[in-house]
Structures are given as structure tokens and as C-alpha cells.
Amino acid sequence: QVQFVESGGGLVQTGGSLRLSCVASVSTFRSTTMGWYRQAPGKQRDLVATITPGGTTMYANSVEGRVTISRVNAKKTVYLQMNSLKPEDTAVYYCNKYLNQESWGQGTQVTVSS
């Protein structure tokens, strides 16, 4: 059974930083494009960033220049370094496969105070 365990969220002030981690029990992790997603209260879940097996990254316009996605295949772990955080970044953050998504994990709450 595929599982995603996200961690690293918390409460920070505007302009602060957080590093999120996601351990993915995906058997094909090394060959899978992974993504970070977020869901704010009352809104749909949106894609934040993706990273291919080879390390090519893509970012949503809303986070471009402030966020860096990375991965360590040997640890089956995906990271999301978030800097210059804004109140509008407040959401629950999830990781999952970019295509053919599996069941979602619990996510990790990020709250940015103004």
C-alpha cells in the first residue's frame, strides 16, 4: 500500500521559512515524477511544484522564486523548501505522484501569520 508521510509544517511569521519533507512508500519512486500540493480552507487542492526523476522542476506561478522542490531517491523523500512565506501560503501541504495519484496522506499544516 502506497503511503505518504508529510512533516515539517508549522506556524511562522510573514517572511519566514519552512522545509517540508515527504517520505513516500512508492515502489517505483526512482522513476516517478513527484509533486507537492496544497489545500487552503474552503478551496480545492492545488499543485505547488513537481520534480521529475531526473530533477527537472516546475513551480506554480504563486510560489515561483520562493519555493524549491528536491528529492533524495535513496530515501524515497521529497522536500519543499519555502522561503519568504506569505499569509496566502497558509494551507495543508501534501505530496503525491504527479500522475496516477495514490491515496492522500495526512498532510502537514503550514500557517503564516501576518
Overview of this protein structure:
The chain has 114 residues and is mainly beta. 0% of the residues lie in helices and 49% in strands. It has no helices and ten strands. It has a six-stranded mixed sheet with strand order 2-10-9-4-5-6, with no helix packed on it. The radius of gyration is 13 Å and the shape is globular.
- Counted by DSSP, the helix tally is 0
Name the beta content range: over 45%
Spans of at least 5 consecutive residues whose pLDDT stays below 50 are: none
Mind summarizing the main beta sheet?
6 strands, mixed
Q: How far apart lie the N and C ends? A: 40 Å
Radius of gyration: 13 Å
Mean pLDDT: 97
Which structural class should the secondary elements be placed in? mainly beta
**Helix percentage range:** under 10%
Trace the largest sheet across and list its strands: 2-10-9-4-5-6
Number of strands: 10
Order of H and E elements = EEEEEEEEEE
Task: Summarize this structure briefly.
The protein has strands at 4-7, 10-13, 18-24, 34-39, 45-51, 57-59, 67-72, 77-82, 91-97, 108-113. By secondary structure, it is an all-beta fold.
Detail the topology: elements first, then pairings.
Blueprint: E1 4-7, E2 10-13, E3 18-24, E4 34-39, E5 45-51, E6 57-59, E7 67-72, E8 77-82, E9 91-97, E10 108-113
Parallel strand pairs: 2-10
Antiparallel strand pairs: 1-3, 3-8, 4-5, 4-9, 5-6, 7-8, 9-10
Keywords:
single chain, 114 residues, mainly beta, six-stranded mixed β-sheet, four-stranded antiparallel β-sheet, 10 strands, 49% strand
